[in-house]
Write a structure and sequence with these properties.
This protein is mainly beta. The protein has a single domain (94-132, 156-474), classed as Pectate Lyase C-like. It is 5% helix and 50% strand. It is elongated.
């Protein structure tokens, strides 16, 4: 799938971390030689830390609490009911409007509760600063108390310019009225904002089951796209951590023209038969990093579209779904190249594909995907563990077309191991117009899942490619 949108690239923010120390599960942040407990060591019961946090955040039941440099905006103070039935969209927008207009460090707080919201756009730029200043923000991320222990997590960060933080502890439910969404829209969309942190452990429930029957994209190339759970457009210096996306109507998370984006500890879930519910889609973005996340959907766990550079994906558990894919590429004119992709230390379980690169035949223009590494990937009962498909067409039937004009080169598959549920574990079908170049397979060990005897082993299939083999090769190389 492909997303089109336009946006303004924003300047990078300066980002510095301060020193900290740990003691018995307690992280204490040093502030100009003193801790939040006004102590020179990391010892103590922790009660001083909590008191310090409360004083610093000064969270009261008002629209915002602020000093000359920081403010907290609670959506409940702007009228959000959090009962799961009343539409809270206007309250969210009112809170964002005031937060975005504030000069300094902003926390947009969504407390625990269920919020029914329609399509909502948190747009910037939120850069009402006449000069660059170093500002301090203390963020109370989470608090857990039991009879035997107290665990606190604190984070101190410095931002030059305005920083927005959205702490989502609540459960957000999307309206199921499709008439309220525009074409190629996001349900919750962030655009043109510098320095956004989205965290807190909240859930974004797209309530997609009622919308999936209206998805015609598997049979109609000109279908209308359904809403995306979380869409990020032209964002700069973004952190998304510890959230959950559930049953999106279409893609769960989509990045378009974003720079310096970090996502971790994300849980994405949709049934295996849900159409086009890609977990994470990345397009026309750079310096993107996703790690330590669980993704199970009805489509690609992660799809890397056109125009991306320096994308790193590590420690992802994928399944069910269609694996981690590059593409599809070469469907539209003037597509950007893909370069500098690293996928490492991931697990695929029960997926249709493991690592897949897919390009359309009859490409309207020239493009390339190069310098990509897939390393230390475990395949558990995967139908197509390694697949390059340069004759990709997802529709019911496709006419014979001219070969793909997407050039694939300098691609490394290293330490790929596990089991294949199909006889052909490695499929490298490259374009006869522009054959693949510099394809490396190093230490690949993929057994046939159903094999009971050693004489039954998985096989390889190759077209329009000369592969360079290193180390172990199971299945055997193409001849």
């Amino acid at each position: 799938m492909s997303i089109t949108d336009s946006g303004i690239q924003l300047p990078l923010l300066l980002f510095l971390l301060t020193p900290f120390c740990f003691d018995h599960g307690l992280m204490v942040v040093s502030v100009i030689g003193k801790t939040l407990e006004e102590s020179s060591s990391c010892s103590g019961s922790g009660s001083g830390v909590v008191g310090g946090i409360r004083k610093l955040l000064h969270l009261q039941d008002k629209g915002s609490t602020s000093s000359s440099s920081s403010a907290v905006f609670n959506v409940k103070s702007f009228g959000a009911q959090a009962n799961g039935h009343t539409d809270d969209t206007k309250a969210f927008m009112a809170a964002w409007k005031q937060a975005c207009g504030f000069t300094g460090t902003v926390i947009l707080l969504i407390p625990k509760g269920k919020y029914l919201i329609g399509p909502i756009k948190f747009t910037g730029p939120c850069t009402n600063v006449s000069s660059i200043n170093v500002r301090m923000k203390v963020r109370f991320e989470s608090f857990y108390a039991s009879r035997s222990s107290l665990v606190y997590h604190l984070s101190l960060r410095f931002y030059a310019s305005v920083a927005e933080e959205m702490s989502v502890q609540g459960y957000l439910k999307a309206t199921t009225d499709l008439s309220r969404y525009g074409s190629s829209a996001g349900w919750v969309e962030f655009a043109w904002v510098d320095g956004l942190t989205l965290t807190g452990g909240g859930t974004f429930d797209g309530q997609g089951a009622k919308a999936w029957p209206y998805n015609k994209c598997t049979i109609d190339s000109s279908c209308q796209l359904l809403p995306i759970n979380l869409k990020f457009v032209a964002m700069n210096k973004t952190v998304v951590r510890g959230i959950r996306s559930l049953n999106s109507k279409f893609f769960h998370i989509a990045l378009v023209e974003c720079n310096n984006f970090k996502g971790s500890q994300i849980k994405i879930s949709a049934p295996a038969n849900s159409p086009n519910t890609d977990g994470i889609h990345i397009e026309r973005s750079s310096s993107v990093y996703f790690s330590r996340s669980l993704i199970g959907t009805g489509d690609d766990c992660i799809s890397v579209g056109q125009g991306n550079s320096q994308v790193t994906v590590t420690s992802i558990s994928c399944g069910p779904g269609h694996g981690i894919s590059v593409g599809s590429l070469g469907r539209y004119p003037n597509e950007g190249d893909v370069k500098g992709l690293v996928v490492r230390n991931c697990n695929m379980t029960g997926t249709m594909n493991g690592i897949r690169i897919k390009t359309w035949p009859n490409s309207p223009g020239l493009s390339a995907a190069t310098n990509m590494t897939f390393e230390n990937i475990v395949m558990n009962n995967v139908t197509n563990p390694i697949i390059i498909d340069q004759a990709y067409c997802p529709f019911t039937s496709c006419a014979s077309l001219a070969p793909s004009r997407v050039k694939l080169s300098d691609i490394y598959f290293r330490k790929i191991r596990g089991t294949s549920s199909s006889a052909v574990a490695v499929t490298l079908e490259c374009s006869k117009g522009i054959p693949c170049q510099n394809i490396y397979l190093e230490d690949v060990h993929l057994d046939l899942l159903s094999s009971q005897e050693k004489k039954h082993v998985a096989t390889s299939s190759c077209r329009n490619v000369r592969v360079k083999y290193i180390g172990t090769q199971i299945p055997p190389p193409c001849v």
